[in-house]
Design goal:
The complex is a heterodimer of chains A (374) and B (265). Chain A has eleven helices and four strands, in the order βββαβαααααααααα. Chain A has 374 residues and is an alpha/beta fold. Chain A has two domains: 103 residues, Transcription Regulator spoIIAA (2-Layer Sandwich); 221 residues, no CATH class. Chain A is elongated. Chain B has 265 residues and is α/β, with parallel strands linked by helices. Chain B has ten helices and ten strands. In chain B, the strands form two sheets. A six-stranded mixed β-sheet of chain B has the order 6-7-8-3-9-10, sandwiched between helices. In chain B, strand 9 and strand 10 form a beta hairpin. In chain B, helix 3 crosses helix 4, helix 3 runs parallel beside helix 5 and helix 6 packs parallel to helix 7. The longest helix of chain B has 18 residues. Chain B is globular. The chains are: A alpha/beta (374), B alpha/beta (265). Chains A and B meet through helix 1 and helix 2 of A and helix 2, helix 4 and helix 6 of B. The structure holds adenosine-5'-triphosphate and magnesium ion. The site of adenosine-5'-triphosphate has 11 residues of chain B, from helix 1.
C-alpha cells in the first residue's frame, strides 16, 4: 500500500564525523523516511549533505530543524554540499518555517461551558425572532400579490402543487389507510372486553379526523417537501443564484418562497382530506373483518355520532401546519452558506424543526379547542 | 531524479489521442511531449479541449484511442497499485479550485498526505503549514474554510494542495483566470519560484498571455482537435495559421510583449 516503497527509497543515515564534528547525512531525505532518523547530536560544526540522493520539502525542513538543534545560540552552522536546486529548496523552506511558539491550548473551564449555554440560548432566540420576521415578510409579499395578481408565478405555483401535492398522494393515502387498520384492530381488542365493539367507529372517526390524519400527513410532507425546499433553495444560494436574482431586481421571496409556501398552504388540506378518507376506509375494513361491523353500520354510526366539528378541527389546522413547514424549509434554505456541509446540516435541521413545531402547534390547538369547547 | 528509465527527459508523452463525447469530436490524433523541468503552456480557444486533455492525462477521463505515458508509464493500462503510485508523483489544480468545502485550508493540504503517506500527525501538520506558507497565504488563512476565502486565495490553496506530496509534475488549469493583473503576476512568480525550488515540471493550461510570456518555456497550441504547434514564444510568432496569428499577434498579445520587455529591462 505504501506509495514510497515502489520508488525504492534508501533509508537515510546520519553520523557524526568525530575529527571535525560534522554531521554526515546520506540516503534519501524525503517525507516518508525522515521520521526513521533519530539523531540526538550534541554541538556540531557543520552538516554535510553531499551524499544525500533525494531531498524534498520535508527533508529540507528536517535539515533546518537539525541545524537549529545542534547550533549553539550565537551562530548558525553551515549546511554544506547542497546542489544548486537543493540550496534553493532549503532557502524556500527556510522562509516558510512554522512560527516559533506553538499556540498553547487553554483547558475548557466551567465558565466556558456556561458561556456556551448562554450563547446557544441567545442564538436560538435570535433565530426565532428572525424566523418570525421572515414569516412576516412572506405574508407581506403574499398580501401585495393579492393586489398585483399578475406578479404571482402561476407556472411555479402549479409545479410545486404537483410536486408536494399530487406526488405525495400515494404515500399519504397508504399511510392513513394503515393507521386506520391499526386503530380498528387495537381498538376492537380493548373495546371487546366491555362489549362495546361498536364504539370503535367513534374511536376511529375522532382520532383520525381530529388528530392523526392531518398530523401524520404534515409529518410526511415535512420530511418529503420541507427538506426538498431547503435543499433546492440552499443549492441555489450556494451557487450565488439567489444573490444574482437580487442584483437583477428579482425578489427571491416572491420567486422562490411564495410559490412553495402557497402551494403547501393550498395543498396540505387536500392531502389531509385524502388521509381522513383513506383512514376511515382502512378503519371500516378492519372493523368489518375483526368485529363484523358492516360498512353500512359503520357509515350510519359515523354520520349519526360524529360531530362535523371533529373534521373541521383537523382541516383548520392544515394551513397552519403548511405554513410552518414551508416557512421553515425556505428559511433554512436561504441560510445556507458557501459550503456543501451547511446544506446537509440545514436540510436535516429543517425537517427536525418543522416536525417539532408542527407537534407543538398541534398541542397548542388541542388546548385552544378544548377551551372554546369544540 | 536520474533513476528514470527510457526516454530520459520526456515526462509526458501523448500519441495519437482520440476523444469524443457522443458525436462531438474533441481530440483527433493529438500528439504532445512535455520535457522534464519545463513549464509548458497549453493555449487554445474556449472549448478546444484543454481541460479534457488534462483530465485524460491524469486518468480522470478515458481516451477513446491513443497512448498516454506519464513518467515512463502508461496511464491507461496499469494496475491499480501502479496507478496509485504514479498519481502520487503528480499534483493537479482544477479549473475551479475543487477544494473540499468542509475542510479548512490546512486540512485540504493535509488530505492527500493523510491518504498517501504513513507519517506522524505532527509532521503532517508541520509540512502542510509549510506548503500553505509557500504559496503565500497569510497566517490567519490556515484555519479558514474555502467559502471564507477570496477567489485568489482559493487558487493559492488549490496550488498548495497540488504540491502537498512534493510531486514531480503539477497540472494547473487556468490558475490565473479571474485574478487581478497584480495577483496574476504574483501567481506567475510563485509558480516559477516553486518550479525551480521543487524541480517541478509544470503543465499549465492558460489564457493569460502575460503568463505565457513571463514564465512558460514552451507553448503548445490546441486547435483543430490536435496540438497545432509547439515551441517557444518566439517560434509562435512565425507560425502561419489564422488563429495562432490572431492570438499571438493581436492587440492584447502586443501589449503583453511590451509588458514582458519592459519587465526585463
Ligand atoms: N463530460 C462531458 N460531456 C460532454 N461534453 C464534454 C464534457 N466535458 C467536456 N465536454 C466538451 O468538450 C469540449 C472541450 O471542453 P474543455 O472543458 O476541455 O474546454 P477548454 O478548452 O478547457 O475550455 P475553457 O478554456 O473554456 O476551459 C467542449 O466542447 C465541451 O462541451
Ligand atoms: Mg477548461
Amino acid at each position: 500500500m505504501q506509495a514510497g516503497q515502489d520508488k525504492g527509497r534508501t533509508a537515510p543515515q546520519a553520523s557524526l564525523r568525530s575529527q571535525d564534528q560534522v554531521i554526515i547525512l546520506s540516503g534519501d531525505l524525503v517525507i516518508e523516511t525522515i521520521e526513521t532518523l533519530d539523531g540526538e547530536f550534541g554541538d556540531a560544526t557543520g552538516i554535510d549533505i553531499s551524499d544525500v540522493a533525494h531531498l524534498d520539502t520535508a527533508g529540507a525542513w528536517y535539515l533546518l530543524q537539525l541545524r537549529q538543534q545542534v547550533s549553539d545560540t550565537s551562530h548558525e552552522i553551515a549546511i554544506r554540499g547542497a546542489s544548486a536546486p537543493q540550496r534553493q529548496l532549503l532557502e524556500t523552506v527556510r522562509q516558510n518555517m512554522p512560527p516559533e511558539e506553538a499556540l498553547d491550548e487553554r483547558p475548557v473551564t466551567l465558565f466556558d461551558r456556561l458561556e456556551e449555554i448562554g450563547r446557544t440560548v441567545v442564538g436560538g432566540l435570535h433565530i426565532a425572532i428572525e424566523m418570525i420576521g421572515f414569516l412576516g415578510q412572506v405574508i407581506a409579499t403574499i398580501a401585495s400579490l393579492v393586489f398585483h395578481p399578475r406578479r404571482l408565478r402561476m407556472t411555479s405555483l402549479v409545479h410545486h402543487m404537483q410536486e408536494v401535492g399530487l406526488k405525495a398522494v400515494p404515500i399519504v393515502a397508504l399511510m392513513a389507510f394503515l393507521i386506520g387498520i391499526v386503530l380498528a384492530f387495537q381498538g376492537s381488542a380493548q373495546l371487546r372486553q366491555f362489549g362495546a365493539e361498536v364504539f370503535v367507529v367513534d374511536l376511529i372517526a375522532i382520532s383520525i379526523l381530529r388528530e392523526l390524519g392531518i398530523l401524520l400527513t404534515a409529518i410526511i410532507v415535512a420530511g418529503r417537501s420541507g427538506s426538498a425546499f431547503t435543499a433546492a433553495i440552499g443549492s441555489m444560494k450556494m451557487r450565488e443564484e439567489v444573490d444574482a436574482m437580487r442584483t437583477l431586481g428579482l425578489d427571491p421571496i416572491e420567486i422562490l418562497v411564495v410559490p412553495r409556501v402557497l402551494a403547501l398552504v393550498l395543498i396540505l388540506p387536500v392531502l389531509g382530506f385524502i388521509a381522513d378518507l383513506t383512514g376511515l376506509i382502512g378503519g371500516a375494513l378492519m372493523s368489518w373483518i375483526e368485529l363484523g361491523v358492516s360498512p353500512a353500520v359503520f357509515q350510519s354510526r359515523l354520520v349519526a355520532n360524529t360531530d362535523v366539528w371533529h373534521f373541521a378541527v383537523g382541516m383548520i389546522k392544515a394551513p397552519f401546519f403548511a405554513l410552518i413547514i414551508g416557512i421553515i424549509g425556505c428559511y433554512e434554505g436561504l441560510k445556507v452558506g458557501g459550503d456543501a456541509e451547511s446544506l446537509g446540516r440545514l436540510t436535516s435541521t429543517s425537517v427536525v424543526l418543522a416536525i417539532f413545531m408542527v407537534i407543538v402547534v398541534d398541542a397548542v390547538f388541542s388546548v385552544f379547542f378544548a377551551l372554546v369547547g369544540v | 531524479m536520474s533513476e528514470q528509465t527510457g526516454s530520459e527527459d520526456t515526462v509526458i508523452r501523448v500519441r495519437g489521442l482520440n476523444k469524443r463525447f457522443k458525436d462531438h469530436v474533441v481530440h483527433e490524433g493529438l500528439d504532445l511531449d512535455v520535457r522534464r523541468g519545463e513549464i509548458i503552456g497549453i493555449v487554445g480557444g474556449s472549448g478546444t479541449g484543454k481541460s479534457v486533455l488534462l483530465q485524460q492525462i491524469v486518468g480522470l477521463l478515458k481516451p477513446d484511442a491513443g497512448q498516454i505515458e506519464v513518467l515512463g508509464q502508461s496511464v491507461r493500462d496499469t494496475s491499480d497499485a501502479e496507478y496509485r503510485a504514479l498519481r502520487r508523483r503528480w499534483g493537479v489544480m482544477f479549473q475551479d479550485g475543487a477544494l473540499f468545502s468542509s475542510l479548512t485550508v490546512r486540512q485540504n493540504v493535509e488530505a492527500p498526505m493523510r491518504e498517501q503517506l504513513e507519517i506522524s500527525d505532527a509532521l503532517r501538520e508541520t509540512m502542510a503549514g509549510i506548503k500553505v506558507r509557500m504559496v503565500g497565504l497569510p497566517e490567519n488563512a490556515h484555519g479558514k474554510y474555502p467559502s471564507e476565502l477570496s477567489g485568489g486565495m482559493r487558487k493559492r490553496a488549490g496550488f498548495a494542495r497540488s504540491i502537498a506530496l512534493d510531486p514531480e509534475i503539477v497540472f494547473l488549469d487556468e490558475p490565473t483566470a479571474g485574478l487581478d493583473p497584480i495577483g496574476a503576476a504574483a501567481f506567475d512568480t510563485l509558480i516559477r519560484q516553486l518550479q525551480t525550488a521543487l524541480g517541478l515540471t509544470v503543465f499549465l493550461v492558460t489564457h493569460d498571455l502575460d503568463s505565457l510570456h513571463a514564465i512558460c518555456d514552451r507553448v503548445a497550441v490546441l486547435a483543430e482537435k490536435k496540438v497545432l504547434a509547439v515551441g517557444t514564444m518566439e517560434e509562435m510568432l512565425e507560425i502561419d495559421h489564422p488563429w495562432v496569428k490572431e492570438y499571438f499577434q493581436g492587440p492584447r498579445a502586443r501589449a503583453a510583449v511590451g509588458a514582458a520587455a519592459s519587465g526585463l529591462a
